[in-house]
Amino acid sequence: MDSLETKVATPTADYDDVLVAFEAFKDANDERLGQIEKRQSADVITSEKVDRINKAIDDLTLKSRRPQLSAATLIEPSEHKKAFDAYVRKGDTFALNTMEAKAMSIGSGQDGGYLVPPETEAEIGRLISKASPFREFCDVRQVSAFVHNKPFNTNGHQAGWIGETASRPQTTSATLANLSFQTMELYAMPAATQALLDDSIVNIDDWMAREVQVVFGEQETNAFTNGDGITAPKGLLTYPKVAQASWAWGNTGYIATGIAGGWPAVAPSDKLLDLAYAVKAGYRANGRFMMSRNTQSQIRKFKDNQNEYIWQPAMAADGKPTLMGFAVTENEYMPDIATGIFGIAFGDFRRGYLVVDRIGVRILRDPYTAKPYVLFYVTKRVGGGIQDFDAIKMLKFDVS
Predict the structure, then answer these.
(1) Measured between alpha carbons, how far is 189 from 219 in angstroms, rounded to an integer?
(2) Does residue 338 fall inside a structural domain?
């Protein structure tokens, strides 16, 4: 155990350590379960050992999936990129203003700054995708308008088989819902010293992307989970919810654990099975679980009827842990288990949730507010919300 805890504290901990830690966890948890079976309670030392290894697995998993940032490819910068570099490094707006006058496409000060070059926007988007779990497996769409409207047929598309010369019957009228996804402004304000900006070897694209990666990624994940749809995208948990037996379009269906703030004492993993099968087969094929770290730590102790652990570590260094064969996504903005809480989501998120990016990231340089530092007010517009209410279901920790 000491060597395991030492590995957690070192920066060289990797995927192999996760597998080693999980084997140690299974041994310790089996010992704990054996003590409960014999004495109706587990030894305190054994329980603490299980919890320590459980936390170690969380830490190791987090370290093993940190993205490796590759060096920027050396290519000849575009005219826009050269003008943008001059603005960021020196505050020189002449080249950007000249381009704006020619093409009317770069943006202007009265619009809240200048549009970054496509190269810089692509680098920012690439790194944000690494920090935001929703962007990894949800439907992401770029738009040029402030609002994206999407018609959706709530009673399914009409189709069927028919003979070559047979008459074509009239199809049932479609019931269309207009889903509206408004993009909201997301901002960050990284700071730099003039000495850093004067250093010609510093890659501005890479520096800017790294500075906004974490804050944009965290803000997006929180909004896609809990956003109110007014000042932030509509979050997954903020839609109306109904018991799956009474599900109707416009609501998120849920399965209850039957226990207020907890799991059934017998076969708790059956509730996860019920949740997975609340989703239709067409969605379940690409299904995944989403939950917080603390919730995942509890589930890691569950076994199935064959006495096998239902949670398994990733089978590859860049993979995801699995739960009953489905991928597990850790989202720290999902609530921990408590009475009445919807703590676990399951479904096909690519078909269920839509992320909308309005093309264009803007930047406004401010060398005055925080002298001797130069502030950069970086903004982008992002929207999001459920686009198919049948694709994602919830687990509620309550009696009903």
Answers:
(1) 13
(2) yes
Residues 6+ apart with CB under 8 A from 122: none
Question: Is residue 74 domain-resident?
Answer: no
Q: Distance (Å, rounded) from C-alpha 304 to C-alpha 324?
A: 9
Contact residues for 19 (Cβ-Cβ < 8 A; gap 6+): 313
Residue type at 71 in one-letter notation: A
How many domains in the chain? 3
First to last CA, the chain: 41
Interatomic CA distance for residues 202 and 278, integer angstroms: 52
With the C-alpha atoms ordered 215, 216, 221, 224, is the resulting torsion angle positive or negative? positive
Q: What angle do CA 235, 215, 380 make, to 5 degrees?
A: 70
Q: What is the DSSP string of 132-171?
A: -HHHHHSEEEEESSSEEEEEEETT--------SSS--PPP
What tens digit of pLDDT does each residue of 145-195 get? Answer: 999 998 877 665 566 677 777 776 665 666 677 899 999 999 999 999 999
CA distance linking residue 293 with residue 46, whole number of Å: 21
**Whole-Å CA distances, 248 to 88, 241, 253, 345:** 51, 10, 8, 18
What does the pLDDT look like over 199-232, one tens digit per residue? 988 888 889 999 999 999 999 999 999 999 999 9
Token pair, residue 277, equals 């099968």
CATH number of the domain to which 335 belongs: 3.30.2320
Domain span including residue 22? 2-64
Using CA atoms, how far apart are residues 115 and 102, in angstroms rounded to an integer? 15
- Residues 340, 273 share a domain: yes
Cα 71 off chain centre by: 25
8 A C-beta contact, residue 56 and residue 313:
no
